[in-house]
Amino acid sequence: MVDVFQLPKTTFVNRIVPKNAFDEYTDTKQKKLFTDLVSKITWTNKLAADTINLSGKTLDEIQIIQIELKSKQEIPEVLAVIDKASPYAIIFIVYFGREYYLSASSKHAHPVKTDISVIDWTFKSEWWSDQGLPYRLTLKETLDFVFFDFCKQLSGFVDSDLRTIAALVEKSRLLDQLQREGKKLKSEISRSRQFNKKVELNLRLSEVLKRIERLH
């Protein structure tokens, strides 16, 4: 177990989770991803009223789960399966050797299937080495605040005045949409052979880039 966040000992669980524990939530392709990509899954910490004396309005518990990889690559499909299978908020520490990335998702209960969660948005970090952790868990106020503050760090909107995870998801989704639009426009500009068309596309791209800048 890698103690990334230096959490209180009262939060330690350190329990190995079998990869086949999620078989009922996977199809054949997803099951193969668990086998091919994941070396070990460990439930390392539980943040709850009985471990850090913090409760929440919408969150009863935050789980910290570490996933050791067989090779360095991101595993969004695997994380989504685990997230959907749990009613609790999860912070993932994914690592290979001495390199790590973090992931956490905002989610809500499925309206019909009570044993499945629906992911609203996933926040993730870049890879970093174990020379220094650029993120922290601020254990104060409520569990809702702890998780929101962490997701805000991952989102890159740390200096914004956002106060709810719903607002953070909305802004993150808009940024992603604009970034995708900008990438598409750049591709169209590079392919275009008509001067007038290039001018039009560049004007549209300029407006998209301005909107992206305003979001930050």
Question: Using DSSP, what is the number of strands?
Answer: 7
Structural class: alpha+beta
What's the main sheet like? 7 strands, mixed
Report the radius of gyration as a whole number of Å. 20 Å
The coarse overall form would be globular
* Distance between the ends: 36 Å
Mean pLDDT: 93
How are helices and strands ordered from N to C? EHEHEHEEEEHHH
* Residue share in β-strands: 15-25%
The number of distinct helices, counting runs of at least 4 residues, comes to 6
Give start-end ranges of low-pLDDT stretches. none
Q: Work out the helicity level.
A: 25-40%
What does the model show?
The protein is of the alpha+beta class and 216 residues long. Helices cover 39% and strands 24% of the residues. Strands 1, 2, 3, 4, 5, 6 and 7 form a 7-stranded mixed beta sheet that branches. Helix 5 packs antiparallel against helix 6. The longest helix is centred in the last third of the chain and has 27 residues, at 165-191. The chain is globular, with a radius of gyration of 20 Å. The model has no long low-confidence stretch (mean pLDDT 93).
